[in-house]
Structure formats: structure tokens, C-alpha cells
Amino acid sequence: MMSNSIHERFYKKIIYRVEGKDYIKFFNNITTNKIEFKSDNKMIRTLWLNNKGRIIHDLSIGWIDNSDSNALLIDHFSSESLIENITKYKMSLDVKIIETSLQAKISDIHSSDIEGIYFMKSSISLIDKYLAIGTSDKLGLVNNFNPMDFILQGISYNKKIFRNRTPMELNLWCAIDFNKGCYLGQEIVARVKYKGQVKRNFSFVKIEKGIDITNAIIYKGENEIGSILHTDYINKNESYCSAFINHNENYKQSGLRIQYGEKEYYCEILENLFKSYSENY
User: pLDDT by residue (tens digit) across 183-193?
Assistant: First the structure.
């Protein structure tokens, strides 16, 4: 069973073509990762933050036909208009963005047998996936993937949990290049990396019951250690939920409980390989 949030996070992506001689310079100046042309069909994930270090655009950029003039920009999440922000911040730089009718779908395999589909290597760390890009009728020919591949690694693309969050809360250190120049929100990110830590960050929680839970507090004994925001995936008698856990409690552990309405359920925090990988990136 796949919930609406799973459908949104993996399938509903806006795709743009990016043009102009200064577009690489622009995204290097404004976003968190180093952007440079790649001819290997591998996408680069980068974040556009506000001055408080919160994510306003989660993007991936890649190039088709081995040409730096054929750049595609994938909008995974936006809390503001991407077109309006590019227009606002590009100043005199030559940058053009054009929304396309293309759609994207995560795929386990790369196939050259499907005409009209571009297969880009996913920018998501720790998983061997492709982003199939094409029209909706063509994407119906592409095999689906197993969402558990993401959940068991601790990787979330749920748009609902990105709003008003920082990269550090979402374990997205791997989308940040600390050797590049300035970008919006850089001071906040650097302060957390070198002088402190966030109070809570993301992990998946498993409940031994096939129920749809939102906004539930997680208790360890009598102490609150986190909260569930959404149920992402229900697999028979198990629910997998997006949660934010106190930093010092965010590790694989069971015997936790949640109170939801008049009922009490037991849950466990899953091992978060993506968190460990990203923190040491």
C-alpha cells in the first residue's frame, strides 16, 4: 500500500530546462553545492536556502546528450516560486528557466530500449537508482521501485516534512559543499557544523500496526524524545513514519511508545544509514 505522501515525494516533480551562459555561475552563487558540468548523466543535488538557513528549494541538475547547453533542473521541493526567485536574484546574469511538460519517476534500472525517456543517475546518496524523465505516457513503461529501499537507508523525499526545515534537520549534509564560495544561509549552516548541532533530526520510525498516524509524540519511558509527522508507507501490519528525534536519541532502538487518540502503540527508531553517511560526508 502506498500513501499519497509517497506518491508525491517520488513522482510529482517539476522539471525545467535551464539556459543562458551564466546559469552554472548563478546556481554556484546561490545554492549549497558545487555545480559543474558532468557528462556522465549523474545529477547533482543542491539546496537553495533562505537567510535563516531553511530550505526553500531542493533541486537536482543534470545534463542530457553530454552537452552543457542541455541542462535539466528537477524541482523536488519548493516553498516559494522557483521562477520568481531566479528572476529576483539573477541580476544581470544570463539565466533563463523554462518549465517543461516532462515528468520524472524513480527507477531501479536504466533501459535504452524505451524511446523518448532520458535516464539520469540519481543524485540521492547510498542508493543505486535512476531518474527516468519523459512524458507521462512513456513513464508508464518504466518499472516501479520498492519504497523500502529508501526507508531502510533512512532517506526521505516527503515534501510535507521539508517545509521550514534546515538541511541539518533532514541530514542533508551531502548536498552541501563546504569548500565552495558563499551562498544564501551559509552562516547558519557553518555555525551548526562547527559550533553545535540541531536539537532534532530526521529518522524513520516503524510501528507494529498498519495504521496511518500523523503528529504523534514519541516517548521513551516518561520522556518525550521526538515526534511522528506523517505515515509514509504501510506494508501489511507495519507502518513506516517520518519522524524527528532528539539528536542524542536518534539511533536504532525499540521499546518506545506513542499515544495516538485513546490508543497506545509501540514503535522503534530504524537504523539511519543515510544520517551516518551524510554526517561524515
Answer: 999 999 999 98
> Are 78 and 85 within 8 A, CB to CB?
no
Q: Which of 254, 247, 253 is nearest to 275 (CA)?
A: 247
Burial 55-66 (b: 16+ CB within 10 A, else e): bbbbbbbbbeee
CA–CA gap between residue 101 and residue 86 (Å, rounded): 20
- For residue range 61-111, list pLDDT tens digits in order: 999 877 788 899 999 899 999 999 999 999 999 999 999 999 888 887 777
The three state secondary structure string of the chain is: CECHHHHHHHHCCEEEEEECCCHHHHHHHHCCCCCCCCCCCECEEEEEECCCCCEEEEEEEEECCCCCCCEEEEEEEECCCHHHHHHHHCCCCCCEEEECCCEEEEECCCCCCCCCCEEEECCCCCCCCEEEEECHHHHCCCCCCCCHHHHCCCCCCCHHHHCCCCCCCCCCHHHCCCCCCCCCCHHHHHHHHHHCCCCEEEEEEEECCCCCCCCEEEEECCEEEEEEEEEEEEECCEEEEEEEEEHHHCCCEEEEEEEECCEEEEEEECCCHHHHHHHCC
CA-to-CA separations, 237 to 6, 170, 202, 267, in angstroms, rounded? 17, 27, 23, 13
Would you say 82 and 99 are in contact if contact means Cβ atoms under 8 Å apart?
A: no
Residue 67 grid coordinates: 552537452
Give 84's contacts (C-beta < 8 A, 6+ positions apart).
none
Q: How many CB atoms lie within 10 A of CB 167?
A: 25
Residue 67's DSSP bridge partners are none
How far apart CA 93 and CA 87 sit, in angstroms, is: 10
**Model-level pTM greater than 0.85?**
yes
The amino acid present at 223, given as its one-letter code, is N
